[in-house]
Amino acid sequence: MLPISQYKGIFGIYRALHLQLELLGGCRLGLGASKIRGNFFYSSSCVLFSVSALSILALPISLGDNMSFAGPSLASGGKTVRRAIEFGRTYVVKPKGKHLATVVWLHGLGDNGSSWSQLLETLPLSNIKWICPTAPTQPVTIFGGFPSTAWFDVGDLSEDAPDDIEGLDAAAAHVANLLSTEPIDIRLGIGGFSMGAATAMYSATCFAAGKYSDGSAYPANMSAIVGISGWLPCSKTLSKKIVADEAVRRAASLPILLCHGKGDDVVPYKFGEKSSRVMVSTGFQDTTFKAYNGLGHYTIPEEMDEVCAWLTSKLGLEGGSS
């Protein structure tokens, strides 16, 4: 039986879990992503929305399915052991026009790659190939140790919460691996929602530094980063990461878009705002922060329109053939 304190923690985050798993498009996204003449509508209850009504081109593929990474962790007695991390199914939305860019999009806590692929397929970005992986199912501290799909472990959303460096490195490495087979002339990007946004921001810092936190080389060449309703992991140590001249140059040249609702009661708005300030202060000069009055922990057409326009500009898609 769980201690009373853990039960309190579980019930304390019930609303957050409800928002991500019940309100969100396809019962997960926070946006009823049903396509009605090219538009989206918000559904306040997943009962009002049926995923089967969507016209979907997202195809499940074997790329990245059940891919495992392992990282070091400290066992009792001071011995180093490796924690196996097995990733779930990856979904791909093929470009409807000429393939000019590939973006890996990362879902939030408790979600999977399928639901976001359904939304991304409806966006007017015909030159982008979307890769939507599914996070590993693993125990999550904020859920009292209950398993959930999560890119890394999280115990608390606070200034002093410890970062799961091993999980973050494994997630960032998985994303980089998904991009490793893209043609050399294709522009690459990473985006995400909530915990997925946090992973995208962490990947941005690895790209700039040229390495993961464990010291191994980061292989992908990023052209754009998007984070919706997220936060920046390892923010207190970021300045130590962006030191070398090449790291400073990469950070300054990487376009980043961060969006956050002022009514977000899951990942508070102040975390998104502070993440933007930290990114800028540590050298990520091309960082844009967009705030949305009254927006909670979900997305809306206005926000996705902003993402589309920004990606079109930063990835050079204006002249792309459809």
UniProtKB/TrEMBL annotation:
Residues 91-311 form the Phospholipase/carboxylesterase/thioesterase domain. GO terms for molecular function: hydrolase activity. The keyword Oxidoreductase does not apply. It comes from the Eukaryota. It holds the Pfam family Abhydrolase_2. The chain crosses the membrane at residues 40-63. Keywords: Membrane, Transmembrane, Transmembrane helix. The keyword Transmembrane applies. PANTHER family: ALPHA/BETA-HYDROLASES SUPERFAMILY PROTEIN. This is Phospholipase/carboxylesterase/thioesterase domain-containing protein. It comes from Salix dunnii. The lineage of its organism: Eukaryota, Viridiplantae, Streptophyta, Embryophyta, Tracheophyta.
